[in-house]
């Protein structure tokens, strides 16, 4: 899966778990917490959505790797590579 | 028997609401807990639920009308035996607390495909659409900025979720058709004003006293890490659930912190419905309740909490969870300040603020050790309790957090 595809899917997931976010306003390398006041429940919801959508495991210690759009793309790419 | 169905008070910060949609029509039957009407408040859309079984006799208020708390919205026909449950005050007419179902139905609406059905603890899906277009909260804000009535947009389309881009497209189309637009409203300012009014009243009327306690969070943190490492992401717990459960259990055990102060006296509550403050992006907060928080096990409480946050983020909540809270918990999360001195949410008599859990030196077994510390701050009502009882309450919470496996 291409990084642009992954990014588009991640934005879709972000809008689903946080419909109060305008996906066009997402700055790729800024933490969701700084940008959107993400709390621990938002972070968990995002982790669940990513795990289910891409079929990759997300460990309890991996949430930090999903903290921004850019780091989430890297994390998903890594996860998909391991899966393949 | 014919009774009046009034707009309930859905929190101390609510004075009025705009009726957006009748979910039932004259002649329709409804069951206890079923949503009857949707109103728009500064908090977002709230489905007002029936407090008993019945049938709609006639509707009094039309969609689009702004009405004060206590206004008669409709007349209902209910069984005579339910007379004692008939609403008499502005606060009545709302579903009394009842256990919420664990599994939310999965929404199939919207441009995003629904996730596969699973036994997930956490379902990160918005509430189901009920047969017409809905605005996402971001889209709702944008519509208001553009001077468009969200209600008019919602009636325009099929049962989908409209996002910001859809609103802008509709706005452009309308503007091209009509030319010009109305003066934009500022929903955030309205919410800030509502919170300000409620908190000013709380500070004016409630003689607050404050107590703080540093709690060693090591046992809870370790237990949570072990538990979460064993289960899939869908079944994981967060700190806020442990802390809320401990506070709810302590509130059930120590008298004077769980209930309401009304008409000059304290009315203890028989169940613990823990209001949880949830910050809204763009400012403001809401504090809907986790019902029976002391009696639910941690996975069940986590499911309810997750569903609650999902509804809040989607801007679509339920009346029962806004009128039920008997005590409130407010937490700043990992990046917050060390101590949060909260303000009581009337008519409640206590609120517990949880600061950020941070590593700091602490004395343990006569040695200085670096420990994860959680500072709890209690604000309680001096008309009901004093510092001695408050200390017992805080120490009870701290003790419960030392045995997280028993929560």
CATH topology of the largest domain in chain B: Chloramphenicol Acetyltransferase
Assembly classification = heterodimer
Which radius of gyration of chain B do the C-alpha atoms yield?
Answer: 22 Å
CATH homologous superfamily grouping of chain A:
ACP-like
Mean pLDDT of chain A: 92
Q: Biggest interface pair, residues each?
A: A-B, 32 and 44 residues
Give, in order, the helices and strands of chain A.
HHHH
Instruction: Determine the mean pLDDT of chain B.
Output: 83
CATH class of chain A, anyone?
A: Mainly Alpha
Tell me the structural class of chain B: alpha+beta
Q: How many domains would you count in the coordinates of chain B?
A: 3
| Radius of gyration over C-alpha positions of chain A, nearest whole angstrom | 12 Å
Number of strands of chain B: 22
Poorly predicted residue ranges of chain B: 82-121, 123-130, 179-184
Described by strand count, sense and barrel closure, the largest sheet of chain A is: none
Number of helices of chain B: 9
Count of strand segments of chain A: 0
